[in-house]
Amino acid sequence: MDVRDVARAALPWALVALVAGLALGVDYALGKATLVLTYAIAGLGVVIVVGQAGQIALGQAALVALGAYTQAVLVRHGVPALLAVPAAVLAGALGGVLASLPARRLGGLYFGMSTLAFALIVEEGLARWESVTHGAAGMAVAAFGIFGWQATTTAAQALVSLAALLLALLACRRLLDLHHGRAWRAVRDDEAAAAACGISPAATKMQAFLVGGALSGLAGALYAHWIGFISPEQFGLVFSFELLMLAFIGGARRLAGAVWGALVIVAIPPTIALLRDLLPGEWARAAGLEMVAFGAVIVAVVLLRPAGLAGKD
Amino acid sequence: MLAFIQVLTSGIAIGCVYGLVALSFVLIYKATETVSFMQGDLLMLGAFAALALHLGLGWPLWLAAPVAVAAAGALGAALERLALRRAIGQPHLVAVLLTFGLGMMMRGGVASVPAAAQDTYRLPFAADTVAFGPLVLASSHLWVVGATFLLAGALAAFFHHTRTGRVLRACSEDARTAALLGWPVARMHTLAWGLGAAVAAVAGLLLAPVTFVHLNMGFIALKAFPAAVLGGLTSLPGALLGGVFLGVVEAVAGLVLPEGVKDMVPYALLLLALLLFPQGLGAGRAARTSV
After folding, report:
1. Which of A16, A45, A151, B2 to pair with A91, CA 20 to 30 A apart?
2. C-alpha distance across the termini of chain A, in Å
3. Nearest chain B alpha carbon to A114
4. What is the mean pLDDT of chain A?
5. Quick check: A299 contacting B, CB < 8 Å?
6. Residue A106 confidence (pLDDT)
7. DSSP B92-152
8. Is-contact A208 A53, C-beta < 8 A?
9. Taking the CA of residue B100 as centre, how many other CA atoms within 13 Å lie in the half-sphere pointing to its CB?
């Protein structure tokens, strides 16, 4: 990748940032940008597991939760935030490996079900293990800090997220070019053929889940700091499906798809709220309308672009 | 001992509901190879539809309940025609996302009705108890078990003794061959979705006196996935038995295990079953008969 490629990749994002900054106000835009960048890191994990390795992952939010809670608990006990991040990444990766254990013997839908079961167990466990996680009441998380400097402004938070995302993107690009990436794609396209070529499908899937889990853990660690408060229900089924949608919208086979998908997913709720305010009458205030709209967006995207998962490499 | 029998009955009853939802899921999955994540929402919608007809319009329950079930079936069939058939032949995730989105729209739609969003309701039947000597059982539990038996019998008769049922089975078994033989595969897909939605609605009606009718009652369908997987994902009796088994295990776990562990038991069992019997508990038999 030479300078011109980098410029070409960065140009649309500079435009998006400029327009958002002008239209929404700099502070609001930076806050949303932080969220987009953090979602994109978690989305990269889904792109690896779903888009590259071709597995069904229905519980990715639980891996984000493991990262977020590891970070929150460690920081609360006085561990510097920067040192807690590797532990959060490790927690996510271990969770990914655990969730992928049934993949040793089976594929496809059964495996998707096992990731779902894993996620539901994690969510329930976080809600019940009150001595550490404060249960369903949730816990507050202090600001992210490095060597006494604290990321309290939205600009600083966006900068930290951007750095983390770029590092994650670089690492993923390397992995995809190495034999790992080739093994993932081989298992995705034909498990039996891959096995015949000496690629172990079980080990390959586990690696993909390890990387996907590590990315989710990293996203969770940052997310906990930016939101400042975490509780188990934030990381439920809806979040898992948001991440799937993210990969689906962006095109699950490209790494950059995660970033575009994150932009759309983060933009949907404020857009819906904005449109709702334009509607006349009382019925538009009904609580369920946003859920209908979000569901409709999912349905529309899937119907208009059913090949979203199988976009170009 | 009496308490144990009571817990067992309630476990069997709730297990029947898991089983019916799992059965509806497997019915659709087997016939169309699409994964439905909206069975819980159809269940909730069915219960609310009966409630609206009964309490809102004042229809008697014996009329409101079948109309609600039929409406849910029609909705399932219509959704298949409009949207869900686009997911056939696509990766599983396409159907998963599509049905999740549709389910979200149903949940949001019901939540938009203030009366539905704010309260929990109870359908006015089977609220009392039945005494067998010293043993006192909730009649709602007996209702659930009895109705499940009847429905399972009716479905078995439909699948084995009617022409349509046999064609549906043929299309589920091998869609390509069925199409070559001239059977209307596309229409059978519509029928499968209609049936699946109707069975889910029946499960909602049966659940109504047990847990009341409320917006989140559909979450019970998450426990139908372990039931379906335990049954091997392609066996209708397997799904029903898997559900009953889970219900009983969960009820017993509630007795002997600490508070809160009970809700994890179905998922832990699912993981365990996948690790130990990756093709489902009935797989050995299926493999032997297919050779």
Report:
1. A151
2. 17
3. B271
4. 81
5. yes
6. 61
7. HHHHHHHHHHHHHHHHHHHHTSHHHHH--B--SSS-SEEEETTEEEEHHHHHHHHHHHHHH
8. yes
9. 21
Contact A269, A51 (CB under 8 A): no
pLDDT of residue B286: 47
The first and second tokens of residue B172, run together, are 């589920």
Say whether residue A289 is in contact with chain B using an 8 A CB cutoff.
Answer: yes
Chain A: nearest CA to B122, how far in angstroms?
A: 22
Chain A CB within 8 Å of residue B142 CB: no
Q: Could you report the predicted ipTM of this complex, rounded to two decimals?
A: 0.84
Buried b (16+ CB within 10 A) or exposed e, B165-203: bebbbbbbeebeebeeeebebeebbbbbbbbbbbbbbbb
Asked if residues A96 and A155 have their Cβ atoms less than 8 Å apart, the reply is no
Put simply, whether A264 touches B (Cβ < 8 Å) is no
Distance between CA atoms of residues B45 and B201, nearest Å: 7
Q: What's phi and psi for A149, nearest 5 deg?
A: -85, 135
Name the residue type at position A10: A
Q: How far apart are CA B94 and CA A305, in angstroms?
A: 10
Identity of the residue in B93, B106, B229 whose CB atom sits nearest the CB atom of A110: B229
Q: Which of residues 36-65 of A touch B (CB under 8 A)?
A: 50, 56, 58
Cβ density class A232-248: b for 16+ within 10 Å, e for less:
bebbbbebbbbbbbbbb
Q: Which residues of B touch A290 (CB under 8 A)?
A: 108
Residue B236's SS3 state is helix
B270 touches chain A (CB under 8 A): yes
pLDDT in tens, B15-61: 999 999 999 999 999 888 888 999 999 999 999 999 889 888 888 88
A-B contacts (CB, under 8 Å):
146
Are B141 and B9 within 8 A, CB to CB? yes
Cβ-based neighbour number of residue A285 at 10 Å: 11
User: Residues A114, A102: contact at Cβ < 8 Å?
Assistant: yes
3-state secondary structure of A47: helix
Indicate the pLDDT class of residue A105, thresholds 50, 70 and 90.
low
- Dump pLDDT digits (tens) for A167-197: 888 888 888 788 777 887 877 877 777 778 8
Contact A302 B103 (CB under 8 A): no
Which has the closest alpha carbon to A303: B105, B215, B199, B75? B105
Residue B1 CA to its chain's centroid (Å): 31
Q: Cα distance from A109 to chain B (closest Cα, Å)?
A: 7
Distance between CA atoms of A240 and A219, rounded to whole angstroms?
13
| Model confidence at B224: pLDDT above 60 | yes
CA distance B239 to chain A (A): 14
Between CA B40 and CA A241 the distance in angstroms is 16
CB A209, CB A100: distance < 8 Å? yes
Is B108's Cβ below 8 Å from some Cβ in A? Answer: yes
